[in-house]
Structure formats: structure tokens, C-alpha cells
Design goal:
A: about 300 residues; alpha/beta; Rossmann fold; 7 strands; B: about 475 residues; mainly alpha; 2 domains
Chain lengths: ~300, ~475
């Protein structure tokens, strides 16, 4: 028995050592999540406009174009449960907060990060934001789900000087700003298909979360909900039922709430093909346009 | 909890340490630990269905005791039928209720009677087909006086719920597994090392081969109308290896894990894709289920004795029931019937037991005759798997007609061909390893006899790194749904 245990330990030791060392190193490499958490921890009191949400606001709202001091705390596929978590974590520090901007896209009310193909991102909230939302190990470690070459490459490129942060100082996602436009027709079809849910069962959960976020913002904080712009190829492939449930739910959410405003930019003619990275994401030019529109709404109704 | 998760990698050493170091001196406590660990293992999937296992355990425990008390034949028969009715009743409700309702509605609609379908939203409890058959075998063996009923309830609970094989087999016989809970287990170093090797080999099959094959099998089967005949052949090929490596991988991990606790489970696979005829294939594939049906259904029906029509009837019954065991879908029934059609000519010509020894015994390579027959059997099995994998009969038929189209001899074209090629290379390497180890219980068994320690450890590390680097994204084991 002792021999078996000893040999098992000796055999496992190099593997365990590799796991521990690489996990520790990777956690030290600054990334978008650790940056945003750090920024919010130390600069919350200066923030007047906080942007939450998924890639539609991460790539679609550039805080540089807000008149007031703003920060984009959105991430790719960030669902309402994480919007609520981030807001809740920093709400006591956000002493100057005047506006919270949240996108309500076609899929927002029916999805959660955990249930989608981007669920590998859940770990980022556990590790870098300190969210104790899941005990599942795959949601708490960097190296789970990565292969050895990926791990070594990540460490190697960082030590060679590659910056792993892909956002601006104020949290805006830069990777869609100056890149070649993808085919708007095909991306519209695939994105609409990806965003159409077979089950709308998460609707009530998400409505509760959004209502909680609005209620807890009530003390002089305005909540701006908006549906982001998209191209025809995306809009025409959406499921009518899901879309109508989304619209009626938004109407129910904002009814009787004086601190909430909603704007629907989905089919807004102000946005043209050259504003888009793909059929449902704005590029840098489109982001500037959308931010200025939202900024006007904040400033005009002050 | 699934074998291919980090959770299991933590769970197993904890149970192992408690088993050998804390409860080592007390057999009852060791068995109680196994029961607790098994219930935790199962409950982490869905604790509500633990009540089903417990109910089935209690029913068969008391029926077993009652069978020993009563000598009257009709009372004993009633007791046996009660056990069969309860166990198959649960299985029938959870697994086949909607199938029968839907088929009744369809049958009546053909007669012009329109009935409304009231199918229920039923969750199939993981492993129900496996533990139901295991408990049934106990009651039947006690009824047949082949086994003394146990009065040790904890041991019986452990026998029914033993976590390594609870959810996907091998389906153990009470005559083999139950007595192992009565006697003190001693730790055997060689057996434990072999167990670790078998776990590693099983993980390799599942994560490296099955999960990678699943990518392409799913792609081609789910979009079969979009691909050429040659690509669909490739899809069937990938599924052939997915199902084998997924299921036999699970069995390897289950058997290997049991060895760590001092138990010996039945062998479930014996290199089935080296079979030279379909009879040999069925002696090597899912052995614990095939022998279950043989002993409790085929032989009571008369087996291969009696008239030609009886033989044909019995073969059809056993294969169709075996197909239906896999799931409530006509595809499984056709799959079973197709295998019966393959098997009957061998039985009638008395050639069903002509390949009993390991292929190319005492030689490195198979001769031309063996290669021809192995290839033919493999192609027949692969063809039958199309029905097994398809969503329904019309999907299977459209898949087959897609294969036999003018594009059959074109070069397969699809996204991700490089990775598919890599998967094929892994399959070839895997089959080479299986060929070299075909005389053993599994390919890596008793490796200490043929390789030096540095080579062995190098091989183990090589397998671990390859699994980690190239393993497919984690997927549930296919047989969990059966």
C-alpha cells in the first residue's frame, strides 16, 4: 500500500507542480477582467456613468465620448446576473454615480453566461472579481479547459512583452475598432441563429435581476436601457416570438419606473453598414455614434 | 458525477484514503462507506432519483429473503413476478412511457381514430437500465436457487449502488459481485497498478478518441443532407469509434476503479473490432449485457435448441429486446433486428462458434483471411451503427441513401479536416495498441512484463500529455442515456 501511494505521489508530482505553477503565473498576467476590477476598486468614486452588459456594449459604447466621467464594465457575453454582481459589488463605492447604461439585446432576457458557448468566461468573474457564484472547479481555475501548449504560449507571449489587455483605459473593447469588417450577410444569419433560444425559461430570472438592478439604483441614479443597432441580415433572421416577448417584457419593466428610460436602436437608420464590425456589433466609428447618442440623452434630460 | 471531471479526480482519492486507512479494520464500515460514496456520486447528478435506487434495493432485498422462506412454487413465482413487475415498471415508465403513448396515437391515427397525445416530460434517471438489470439478476438467481439471499442489507445496498459501475455498467451478477462484499478485501499492489493503468487507458479512449470523434460524428449526422457520400461514410466511421471508445472507456475506468478498492468486475469488452464474424463481435461487445440476455432470456426461450423457426424467433427476440433496452426509439429496434439478420445465417450454418480464440493467436500479424473477415465484420457493424445513431428511421434511411449517391467516391470536404485527420491518426495508433495487447484484458494490462520502468512511465506521461493536449471538449458518456 505504502509503495502504491508513494509511486502515485511521485508520478503525480510533476503534473501537480506544473498545474500549480502555471495557474499562479497566469493569474498574475493582467487581463481585461483583472484590469476592470482593479479600476473599479480604486476609481469608483469618480465614475458618473457606468456601462454594463455584453459585447454589444463592450464594443459598442466608448466612454471617451461621454461628457461625464464614465467607465465601461461590460464584457463579452456578460449576462444580467454578472451585471448585477458587478453593480452590487461596487455600488457603495460608486458615490458619484448618476447613470447606469445597460443593453437589452434580443437575447439578454433569455440567456445566462453559464448556459452558452462562452461559459468558459465564468472563471474570470470568480478569479478576478471574486464572485463566489459557482463551486464547480472549472469555473474557478484558469488552467482547466486549456491544453499545455496554450498555457505555455500564454505565459511565453506575456514574458515576450505581448499585452493581454484588449481594452482602453476606460474599459472599451478595442479589438473590433480598427479591424476588417466581416461579411454582414453571413454573420447576420449565424448570430441570429446563435441568439435565438430554444427555451425562454430564463426570462423570469432575468426580469427579476433587471428589476433588482433598477430598484437598487433608485436613489437618484438613472437607468438607461437600450437595444443596440444591428444590420438587416441579423434583424430579418430573428425569431418573431422571442422578439415580441423581449419587447413586451421591456415595456413591463419600464412601466411606472421614473428612473428608467428605454431606447430602441435596433433598426435605427442613423447607423449604416460602415458603422459595423459584423451584423450585430459596432466598430469604433459606430461605437462613437452610439455613445454620442446615449450621451445626448443623458445630458439633455439632466 | 462523471469520471471525466476534476470532481471525480478529487472524489476518488478521498474515498480511497477513507476506505483503506480509516475504515480498513471494519468490513461493515467499509461497505457503508461504499454505499455513502455511491449515493454521493449519484446524488450529485440528481439526488431525487436516489429514492428510486433505494426503493429498488429495498424491494429486491425483502423479496430475496421471502424467496428463501417460501418453498411453495406458486408463492415464489408471485414474489419473482412482483420484483420483475416493480423493476420493469419503473424502467418502463421512465424510459418507454412516451414511446408507447406516441406509437399508440400513431397506430390509431392509421385506423382513422384521432387521439390526443399526452406524452409526459419525463427525465430519464441515469443508470436505471443498468441497476434495474443488476437487481433483477439477483432476484432471478435467488429464485432459481443459484444464490443464497443476503441478510446483510448494507452489502446489498453496496452491490446495487457500487459507484464505479452504477450508471453505465458493467452489469454485474450478484453471484460475482455480492460475495465480494462479504469478505475482507486486501490491498493488492499489482492489481491496483493494473487498475490505474486501466483508468488511464479508459480516459484516453473517452477523452482523446471518443470526444474528438463526436465532433465529426455529430457534425455529419446532424447535417447529413449537406455532405457528400464519402463524408457520410467518414461520419459513420467516426461514430463507430466514438461509441466503442466512449462505452468501453467507461467500462475500463469502472473496472480500474473497482480494482483500487479490491473488487474484480466482469470484463465488458474484448477488442470487438477485431472480430471475424458477427457472433464473435457479440461475444466481445458489451459482454455483461449480452450474457445477461443470454442467461435470463435466450436460454429460457429455448436458445439455439429446437426447430429452425424457434431458433430464428429466439435470435430475433434477444436482439430486438437488446436494441430496445438501449432506448425508446424504432432506430434501436431496427439496429437490433439488423444484427439478428447478420447473426442468423451463422447460427443456422453452425458457424457461430467458429472464432473462439484470439485472432492471430501466437502471431504478430493476421493472415489475409482474418483481415478480410475482420474488415467485412467491421463494415457490417459500422452500417448498423447508422441506425443506432440516427434520430429516427427516416433520418437513417436518408443518411444511407446519401452514402450510396454519386458522391460516394469523391474526396470528403468539410471544415476542420486537419483536426479530423489527426483524430484518424489517433484512432490508428489506438487500434495498433489494441492489436498488440489483444491477448490481455485491456491493451495496457500487465505492462510490467513487457516494458521496463522508464519506458512504462514515459508511456504513461505520454498518454497523459496527449490526452491533455489533444482531448476533445468534455462530453457526457453516451451510455448514460440508456
Amino acid at each position: 500500500m505504502k509503495l502504491f501511494i508513494r509511486k502515485s505521489i511521485i508520478f503525480s508530482l510533476p503534473i501537480v507542480l506544473f498545474l500549480v505553477v502555471t495557474e499562479t503565473i497566469i493569474r498574475q498576467i493582467p487581463n481585461d477582467y483583472s484590469y476592470k476590477n482593479k479600476y473599479l476598486s480604486s476609481n469608483s468614486k469618480h465614475i458618473e456613468t457606468l456601462v454594463l452588459g455584453s459585447s454589444h456594449s463592450f464594443f459598442g459604447i466608448n466612454p471617451d465620448y461621454f461628457t461625464r466621467s464614465a467607465f465601461n464594465a461590460a464584457h463579452v457575453s456578460q449576462s444580467l446576473n454578472y451585471d448585477y454582481f458587478i453593480f452590487n459589488k461596487f455600488k457603495n463605492k460608486l458615490s458619484n454615480l448618476k447613470t447606469v447604461v445597460i443593453p437589452v439585446s434580443y437575447f439578454t432576457l433569455f440567456s445566462q453566461l453559464e448556459n452558452g458557448i462562452e461559459n468558459w468566461r465564468v472563471k474570470n468573474y470568480s478569479i478576478y472579481y471574486g464572485c463566489k457564484c459557482h463551486y464547480d472547479l472549472k469555473y474557478n481555475f484558469e488552467i482547466i479547459g486549456k491544453n499545455p501548449l496554450e498555457i505555455l504560449k500564454q505565459i511565453y507571449t506575456y514574458h515576450k512583452g505581448t499585452n493581454h489587455i484588449t481594452i482602453s483605459e476606460l474599459g472599451f473593447g478595442l479589438s473590433y475598432s480598427n479591424v476588417k469588417q466581416s461579411d454582414l450577410l453571413t454573420t447576420g444569419v449565424t448570430a441570429a441563429k446563435r441568439h435565438t433560444m430554444s427555451d425562454l425559461g430564463l426570462l423570469n430570472t432575468n426580469i427579476v435581476l433587471l428589476n433588482k438592478l433598477i430598484t437598487e439604483s433608485n436613489k437618484g441614479i438613472k437607468v438607461i436601457l437600450f437595444t443596440p443597432p444591428a444590420r438587416k441580415s441579423y434583424i430579418s433572421n430573428l425569431n418573431e416570438h422571442q422578439l415580441s416577448v423581449m419587447k413586451s417584457s421591456i415595456a413591463d419593466i419600464i412601466k411606472g419606473k421614473f428612473n428608467v428610460e428605454y431606447y430602441d436602436f435596433m433598426d435605427d437608420a442613423q447607423f449604416v453598414d460602415s458603422d459595423f464590425k459584423d451584423a450585430d456589433h459596432l466598430n469604433g466609428i459606430g461605437a462613437k455614434k452610439l455613445t454620442q447618442l446615449i450621451n445626448r440623452m443623458i445630458v439633455d434630460k439632466k | 458525477m462523471f469520471f471525466n471531471t476534476i470532481d471525480f479526480a478529487i472524489f476518488l482519492p478521498i474515498v480511497f484514503v477513507l476506505y483503506w486507512f480509516v475504515f480498513n479494520n471494519n468490513l461493515r464500515l467499509q461497505n457503508a462507506l461504499i454505499v455513502t460514496a455511491s449515493y454521493v456520486f449519484y446524488g450529485l447528478w440528481d439526488w431525487r432519483f436516489l429514492s428510486l435506487i433505494l426503493f429498488s434495493t429495498v424491494v429486491d432485498y425483502f423479496i430475496g429473503i421471502s424467496l428463501a422462506k417460501h418453498k411453495n412454487a406458486s408463492t415464489r413465482k408471485i414474489l419473482l413476478l412482483t420484483s420483475i413487475f416493480i423493476n420493469l415498471g419503473f424502467l418502463g415508465f421512465f424510459k418507454y412511457f412516451n414511446f408507447f403513448i406516441d406509437n399508440f396515437v400513431t397506430a390509431f391515427s392509421f385506423m382513422g381514430v384521432q387521439l390526443s397525445s399526452n406524452s409526459l416530460d419525463i427525465i430519464l434517471p441515469v443508470g436505471i437500465s443498468f441497476y434495474t438489470f443488476q437487481t433483477l439478476s439477483y432476484t432471478i438467481d435467488v429464485y432459481r436457487n443459484k444464490l443464497e439471499p443476503t441478510k446483510d442489507f448494507v452489502s446489498f445496498c453496496a452491490f446495487v449502488s457500487f459507484f464505479p459501475q452504477l450508471v453505465a455498467g458493467p452489469i454485474e451478477r450478484a453471484t460475482n459481485l455480492l460475495p465480494q462484499f462479504y469478505s475482507k478485501r486486501t490491498f493488492d499492489y499489482t492489481n491496483a497498478v493494473n487498475g490505474m493503468r486501466q483508468i488511464l487507458w479508459g480516459l484516453m479512449k473517452k477523452v482523446l478518441i471518443a470526444d474528438n470523434c463526436a465532433i465529426y460524428a455529430n457534425l455529419f449526422f446532424n447535417n447529413s443532407t449537406d455532405y457528400s457520400g464519402s463524408t457520410l461514410v467518414l461520419g459513420a466511421f467516426f461514430f463507430t469509434f466514438q461509441i466503442y471508445c466512449d462505452f468501453s472507456g467507461y467500462s475500463d475506468i469502472a473496472i480500474g476503479t473497482s480494482k483500487l478498492f479490491g473488487f474484480n468486475l466482469k470484463r465488458n469488452f474484448a477488442f470487438p473490432y477485431f472480430s471475424r464474424d458477427i457472433a464473435e463481435f457479440w461475444r466481445c461487445w458489451h459482454i455483461s449485457l449480452s450474457t445477461w440476455f443470454r442467461d435470463y432470456l435466450y436460454i429460457p426461450l429455448g436458445g439455439s435448441r429446437g426447430s429452425v423457426s424457434n431458433k430464428i424467433r429466439n435470435v430475433f427476440i434477444i436482439f430486438i429486446v437488446s436494441g430496445f433496452w438501449h432506448g425508446a426509439n424504432w432506430t434501436f429496434i431496427i439496429w437490433g433486428a439488423l444484427n439478428a439478420l447478420y447473426f442468423i445465417p451463422l447460427l443456422l450454418s453452425k458457424r457461430n462458434r467458429s472464432n473462439l480464440e484470439v485472432v492471430a493467436q501466437g502471431r504478430h500479424f493476421a493472415n489475409f483471411n482474418d483481415i478480410f473477415h475482420m474488415t467485412l465484420t467491421f463494415l457490417m457493424v459500422m452500417f448498423a451503427w447508422i441506425f443506432f445513431r440516427a434520430e429516427n428511421i427516416s433520418h437513417a434511411l436518408s443518411y444511407i441513401s446519401g452514402i450510396f449517391s454519386s458522391s460516394l467516391f469523391s474526396i470528403p470536404i468539410f471544415l476542420g479536416m486537419k483536426k479530423a485527420l489527426l483524430t484518424i491518426i489517433f484512432i490508428l495508433l489506438f487500434m495498433a495498441a489494441e492489436w498488440l495487447g489483444r491477448h490481455r484484458q485491456f491493451a495496457l494490462a500487465d505492462l510490467q512484463a513487457s516494458l521496463s520502468k522508464p519506458l512504462r512511465w514515459g508511456l504513461y506521461y505520454g498518454i497523459v500529455i496527449t490526452i491533455w493536449q489533444f482531448g476533445g471538449s468534455p462530453k457526457e458518456f453516451i451510455y448514460f442515456q440508456f
